[in-house]
Design brief:
Layout: E1 3-10, E2 17-24, E3 27-31, E4 39-44, E5 48-55, E6 64-75, E7 78-81, E8 85-90
Antiparallel strand pairs: 1-2, 1-8, 2-3, 3-4, 5-6, 6-7, 6-8
């Protein structure tokens, strides 16, 4: 099963960027647009310890969360965790008011 959609990616080195993301086959891939022609970045999720948590950003951006991945190394019935890789995201929500006052 594939899940796809737009999110804002917050990178410490660059300005926040709107990216099209695709979650499939154990990878979270980032694309510039929905045509998915050029993969800009990918994060391996399969074989990793995954942490996903909501967060309150210092800059006040709503609907924010982060994903932390740590590769799991298994040897002789024990395991060790690799270095943490963290990516921060936020999602934009849009409420449209109808003339009668209902929200859609």
């Amino acid at each position: 099963m594939t899940r796809q959609g737009y999110l804002i990616v917050h990178d410490k080195r660059n300005h926040p960027t709107v990216r099209y993301l695709s979650l499939e086959d154990g990878f979270l891939r980032q694309f510039a647009s929905a045509d998915c022609t050029k993969c800009l970045d990918e994060v391996r999720l399969s074989g990793c310890k995954i942490t996903v948590k909501a967060q309150k950003r210092a800059d006040g951006v709503p609907n924010s969360f982060y994903i932390e991945t740590r590769k799991v190394f298994v040897k002789d019935r024990s395991y060790t965790l690799g270095n943490v890789e963290r990516i921060e995201f936020s999602a934009c929500t849009l409420l449209l008011a109808r003339p009668c006052g209902h929200l859609t």
